[in-house]
Amino acid sequence: MKKRYLTTALMICLTAFYGGLKAQENNKNYDEKLAKELNADEYGMKVYVLAILKTGIEKSFSKAKQDSVFKGHMTNIGKLVTDGKLVVAGPLGKNDKNYRGIFILDVPTIEEAKKLVDTDPAIQSKLLDVDLIIWYGSAALKETLKIHSKIEKRSH
């Protein structure tokens, strides 16, 4: 008899527990065409590579040489954007870790990201160094570039 009460109690608990779990619902705003264009998974996410730019080992360049290298750095950023490989770039504030900026690259592997950052004159000249990390984020991130061009009064 005791076993029967335990079994019944267990069944009630399990029913209450599983009945209380809400199944994941489909998003009513889901746009399948846009999701495919952005290579989004079922959660609207995708894999990118986060590049953390750091102060490099080169310290002997003149101001003119540094300016020239950073002009090439900015040109390279523009090329990566045009090629659809760079979705976010920007400098970081002063910090004690020598972090200088970030890129979010629209590639799925560290190897592909390495090939892209190796085209940067600031990396090539060792003025900057880079750490590359896989990052999983919103596939909609790429859409910010379209919006940015509408709010940017002056370009670099």
From TrEMBL:
InterPro entries per the UniProt record, alphabetical: Dimeric_a/b-barrel (IPR011008), YCII (IPR005545)
SUPFAM superfamilies to which the protein is assigned, alphabetical: Dimeric alpha+beta barrel
Signal peptide as annotated in the record: 1-23
UniProt xrefs under Gene3D superfamilies: Dimeric alpha+beta barrel
Residue stretches making up the YCII-related domain: 52-127
Keywords of this entry: Signal
Pfam families per UniProt: YCII
Family, similarity comment: Belongs to the YciI family.
The name this protein goes by in its record: YCII-related domain-containing protein
